[in-house]
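Protocol step 4 of 5: obtain the predicted structure for the target chain.
Materials: sequence only (see below). No template structures provided, no constraints applied. The aim of this step is simply to have a reference model before the mutagenesis design in step 5. Sequence pasted as it appears in the construct record:
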Amino acid sequence: MTASTLIPGPGSVLPNPVSWMQNTWSNRNSVVAAKEAQSNLPKLDSEARRLTHIARLESDWDSYGSVPISPNAIRAALVLIGAAAVLFEARPFAILPLSGGGIQLEWRSPRGEIEVEIGSDNTLGYLFVDKQRGERLFAEKDNASVQEVLDFLSKSVSK
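Step 4 output (structure tokens):
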């Protein structure tokens, strides 16, 4: 599998993004996948570099005994970042390691903000802040589906 199958390029047609994301998880080494994305996708170069750095974190990286970041979380983050780039032309504001082996991705725009947590077992959770209506409205969920995350990502970054 090449990086182009992990993250399609701009203008690629994704007839069913949810199926594409769910079927893209692989047994590839996360550092290799992030490096391939970095070399083959200049548009996402900084994101791939950040994930490569995160993938190399060792035990106790936070000095509180955290485990290394899960290869599953790295792969899931690569796919979600690629899907956001293709579907919404959006790049994450932040890519952060989480204690327990997961990753947090954040997108921000004048319309809204979304924080997506990817667990070490590929579970998804989100916190969405809608900034369009004079007051801030929140929605959050643990154990969210890929479709739910994409729906709220669309609400937060679509033009």
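Step 4 remarks: The longest strand covers residues 124-133. The beta strands are 94-98, 102-108, 112-118, 124-133, 135-144.
Proceed to step 5.
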